Amino acid sequence: MPAALVLTGAVLGRRFPQPVLGIAALAVVAASALFEHPPWDNLHVGATWLLLPLAASYTVASNLPSSEPVTATSLAVPAALAVPLIADYGWTAYAPLVESESTLGPDSWAWTSTGLSVAAVVACGLAAAHLGKRPT
Question: Model-level pTM greater than 0.85?
Fold first, then answer.
C-alpha cells in the first residue's frame, strides 16, 4: 500500500506540480502527532501510513524539474538509505516494549515538539512559495 501511495504521489507531482500543496499536507501529518492518544489515535496512524508517503513523494516530484529516471532515483534513494535504520531501530530490533503511563491527551513535550515540527514545515512551505514567485 505505501508503495502504491508513493507512486501515486510521484505521478501527481509530475503532472500537477504544486510544491506548496505537498508541504501543506506534510504539515498536516506533522500536526497529527497531537492525536496519538485514544480516541483520536487512528487519525495519527492514518496520516502517518496513508498521507505521509503520498505527500512526501508528491512534494519531491513537484520540486524536481527533471527527467523521469532522475525523479525515480530521487524517490528510491531515501528508501534505500532507510533500510539500515529500520534494521537497527525498527521492528527487527526485537526490543521489549516499555509500558508508560496512559495520559488522556498530549503532554507539554508533545505540544512543544509537534509545534516545532509544524513550524519548520510551514517555514519550508513559505520559503518555497516565496522562491516560486521570484522571477527567474
Answer: no
